[in-house]
Amino acid sequence: MAEPPKKLIIIDESAPKIRKTGRLKFFDENKSYGFIVMDEDGSDIFVHYDDLSKAGVNKDLLRSAKQGNLVRFSFLCMNYIGKYNKSKKAVELELI
């Protein structure tokens, strides 16, 4: 019997909201998510299409990244506990 999916739990760290920057590493159009490589340390951070679309990013722009177009963002990191325990997600994205 399959385990029920874990409920997303957002971790409130009461830390100041510091914007990060990075470039789109890849985006899976079928799954509606991808990853951004953070400029700060080169680590990957999860990004969902819902958050990208709020920033005015459409799938045509995301497709252009596959053809070598550099797509850069400014964003906040949301820490949460989800499917893979403690994770980070890019939220409040802005194209730069």
Describe this structure in words.
There is one protein chain. Strands 1, 2, 3, 4, 5 and 6 form a six-stranded antiparallel sheet that branches. Helices cover 15% and strands 46% of the residues. It has a single domain (18-95), classed as Nucleic acid-binding proteins (OB fold (Dihydrolipoamide Acetyltransferase, E2P)). By secondary structure, it is mainly beta. It is globular and about 35 Å long. It has helices at residues 49-54, 59-66, and strands at residues 9-10, 20-28, 33-38, 44-48, 72-82, 85-95. The termini are far apart.
Radius of gyration: 14 Å
**By CATH's scheme, which homologous superfamily applies?**
Nucleic acid-binding proteins
N-to-C SSE series?
Answer: EEEEHHEE
* Domain tally: 1
| Distance, first to last CA | 46 Å
Overall form: globular
Into which percentage range does the β-strand content fall?
over 45%
Helix count equals: 2
Architecture, CATH level 2?
A: Beta Barrel
Largest sheet: 6 strands, antiparallel
Low-confidence runs of at least 5 consecutive residues? none
Number of strands: 6
Reported by name, the CATH topology is OB fold (Dihydrolipoamide Acetyltransferase, E2P)
CATH C-level category: Mainly Beta
Mean pLDDT: 84
